[in-house]
Design goal:
Chain lengths: 139, 335
């Protein structure tokens, strides 16, 4: 890649926080370091990965509103986690986390257990259990 | 407590951390040098390792190896520590900072709030350096960032104790002793020999240039095997592994070519400089591959370029790299 070919696509997901370093060649063929603010194919691939995540979050949100799942499921998806990861953070078992994704089990959870989950997602217990809020925000 | 820390941006986190840490200890090694001597370049396609149902592909050696190989080859003694709980890990970090010792550590990208939100997936093998503490916030030299930045105690503790695969477990490391004299020449040749050997001579179909060829073959069949939607997701993952943060473009090919260029000048070896130019060309080809693959992903249809055509580009790359690394092996074998 030539120095002047290093992509500088304005449309990117870097929020102006990041300009990645690339190794490119100057006209004599020697390697120089060049910063790039973004490249379209990479942005597309990254956006695509986030679309999948956002779709899953939206599906989970609908399930919670319909009463088919507990808010725990929403927060797991929102944090791009798996039940296994949540179990590790909240020091419990994966099958219990999966059970707690059902409203009937979730509603019987002790304050202590709820606190563990809330800590995992860095939110308060009130936020964790608040279904009304999920109804309002579409995404 | 702060020390004077000279931060230089790099493309890849692990080699960047090593380069920055060693500069602090008076050993000047550029990022490509670290990457090359540590034999960072590799290729594996791992269809049986699925992340969210997407087969894994890696353009580099697994995390931690670059540092290990590099320090072994130059005789640097490294102190490594891991911890059972966050409080202990953070106390130990504070103790090292009080001594004026910058510390490299493993973190999860998810909790590093100075990075753009789009990059913050659960990737648990990101390397950063913490070199000081000011007003309760830790000063961070993250090699992929242009400037140094800072992070709160809470976030850093979480990032160091993220769960999932792999678990950082608060791992931290710093050079204990740097050697007075060392032979760069030997280290360069050993590094080159190992990379070229691993790229061409491991008798398994999934690794090295053979792995690229295998992936090219499999990719042609993706649309009919798993359907358009999934095929496009898998392709997108391939682009991300190749071009996202930390690769320096084209799956580390450009960093490695820069290394061969520098090594060629250092060893007065024309052949290496020539091979560096050739590797730049296959790197460009991989960029083309990512460009066309990106178009396919964007249009969500495979009519712009078919998967068969994409497979052809990849296979061509694998053939050219087979030739390059074979030659590299021949050059380095006798050294």
């Amino acid at each position: 890649m030539k120095q002047e070919q290093v992509p500088q696509d304005q449309e990117n997901l870097n929020e102006g926080k990041l300009a990645k370093l690339y190794y490119a060649t100057d006209d004599k063929g020697n390697y120089v370091k060049v910063n790039s603010i973004g490249w379209e194919p990479e942005t597309v691939a990254m956006q695509q990965a986030w679309d999948v995540v956002n779709d899953e979050v939206e599906i989970a949100r609908k399930k919670v509103i319909e009463g088919k799942a507990s808010p725990l499921l929403y927060w797991i998806k929102k944090n791009i986690m798996t039940t296994g990861m949540v179990a590790a953070y909240a020091s419990t078992f994966g099958f219990l986390v999966r059970l707690h994704c059902k409203p009937s089990f979730f509603n019987r959870l002790s304050r202590k257990q709820l606190e563990k989950y809330a800590y995992t997602f860095r939110i308060s217990v009130e936020e964790l259990t608040d279904i009304e809020r999920l109804k309002k925000n579409d995404r | 407590m702060t020390v004077n820390f000279d931060h230089k941006q790099s493309a890849h986190c692990e080699s960047g951390v090593v380069s920055n840490l060693l500069r602090f200890h008076g050993m000047e090694f550029d990022e490509p040098m670290v990457f090359g001597i540590g034999s960072g370049l590799f290729f594996t396609y791992l269809p049986f390792v699925r992340v969210n149902g997407i087969p894994g592909v890696a353009y580099r050696i697994w995390p931690g190896q670059i540092f290990k190989r590099f320090s072994d080859r130059l005789g640097i003694k490294i102190e490594r520590k891991k911890f059972s709980n966050p409080a202990k890990a953070m106390d130990e970090l504070d103790r090292m900072l009080d001594k004026g010792q910058p510390v490299g550590m493993l973190t999860s990208v998810f909790f590093l709030d100075y990075l753009p939100a789009a990059y913050r997936f659960h990737f648990n093998a990101h390397n950063i350096i913490v070199f000081g503490k000011e007003n309760g916030r830790y000063l961070v030299s993250d090699p992929v960032m242009e400037q140094t930045t800072d992070i709160s105690y809470e976030d850093l503790a979480r990032a160091r104790f993220a769960k999932g695969m792999p678990e950082p477990s608060g791992r931290m490391y710093y050079p204990l002793r740097v050697p007075g004299d060392f032979s760069v020449e030997n280290a360069l040749w050993t590094g080159i020999k190992q990379t070229s050997d691993h790229m061409t001579r491991i008798p398994m179909p999934l690794v090295g240039t053979k792995g690229m060829k295998y992936l090219a073959g499999r990719m042609r069949k993706w649309p009919e095997r798993i359907g358009d939607r999934k095929a496009i997701l898998w392709l997108g993952n391939l682009i991300r592994m190749q071009e996202e943060i930390g690769t320096g473009g084209a799956g580390f090919r450009f960093i490695y070519a820069a290394f061969l260029d520098q090594a060629g000048h250092k060893l007065n070896n024309e052949k290496l400089i020539d091979l560096s130019k050739q590797l730049t060309k296959t790197g460009d080809k991989l960029r083309d591959f990512a460009y066309y693959a990106g178009r396919v992903c964007k249009n969500r249809k495979s009519d712009t370029k078919t998967f068969a055509e994409l497979g052809d580009i990849l296979e061509e790359c694998s053939q050219q790299e087979q030739a390059i690394f074979n030659e590299l092996y021949e050059v380095s074998r006798s050294k």
